[in-house]
Backbone:
């Protein structure tokens, strides 16, 4: 899929992986609609220039995301929506049984799954329906969807039952979605990042940060948002990448 002069939707675009991806696609000539639940997304879009637009929306809301997809299609003009990089999600930590012997909160578990898994499905289904209406490109494609999983889908740690399950669901949807959408010439991929330098990481204790760095075989550091964005670009532009999950983690395997 060509990036130059095409329209893309980035969710979770107010900061971190989504913001870096929006910036990279814009640098390659795309028009980008940045979507986030945070109002900060408007400031982010303004800073990125005239080809960037912004909308606030809850990815789990059918009504709100329908409006976002419609706006993204409109941004693309006659060519429609070329692709989605879905970065929106939450991290949660809760043990099944805490130190006082109390069970984990069921509503908190359901909320994590609702945002990370159901939200991903919601964005994917609406984007795919819009892309299926596109005229095929010279390579025969109509669109590409890049979802964000996590290494926690494979190497979940203590306290990550909800988060790991939600991201494993994203992994599990990749191949069946790619198979189903092949008749519409829409590709589906997922990136499973390891531990990345994001605003969330600035909140953890220094000793915990150092331990994470030490666990990465090479390079001996955490991932950078621009490296996620670079991989998203490569997935968008390489038509043979389909139905797969790519770990982007420096070789880390969580204990």
Residues:
């Amino acid at each position: 899929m060509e990036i130059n002069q095409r329209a893309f939707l980035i969710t979770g675009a107010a900061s971190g992986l989504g913001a870096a991806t929006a910036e990279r696609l814009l640098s390659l000539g795309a028009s980008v609609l940045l979507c986030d639940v945070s109002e900060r997304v408007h400031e982010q879009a303004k800073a990125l220039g005239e080809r960037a637009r912004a909308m606030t929306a809850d990815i789990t809301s059918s009504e709100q995301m329908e409006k976002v997809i419609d706006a993204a299609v409109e941004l693309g003009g006659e060519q429609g929506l070329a692709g989605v990089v879905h970065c929106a999600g939450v991290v949660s930590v809760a043990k099944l049984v805490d130190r006082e012997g109390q069970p984990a909160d069921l509503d908190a578990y359901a909320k994590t799954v609702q945002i990370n898994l159901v939200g991903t499905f919601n964005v994917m289904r609406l984007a795919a329906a819009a892309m299926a209406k596109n005229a095929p490109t010279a390579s025969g494609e109509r669109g590409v969807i890049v979802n964000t999983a996590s290494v926690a889908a494979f190497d979940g740690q203590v306290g990550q039952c909800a988060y790991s399950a939600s991201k494993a669901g994203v992994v599990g949807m990749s191949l069946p979605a790619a198979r189903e959408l092949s008749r519409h010439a829409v590709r589906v991929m997922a990136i499973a990042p390891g531990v990345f330098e994001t605003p969330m990481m600035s909140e953890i204790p220094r000793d915990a940060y150092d331990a994470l760095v030490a666990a990465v075989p090479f390079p001996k550091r955490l991932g950078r948002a621009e490296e996620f964005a670079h991989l998203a670009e490569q997935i968008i532009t390489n038509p043979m990448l389909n139905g797969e999950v790519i770990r982007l983690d420096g070789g880390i395997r969580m204990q």
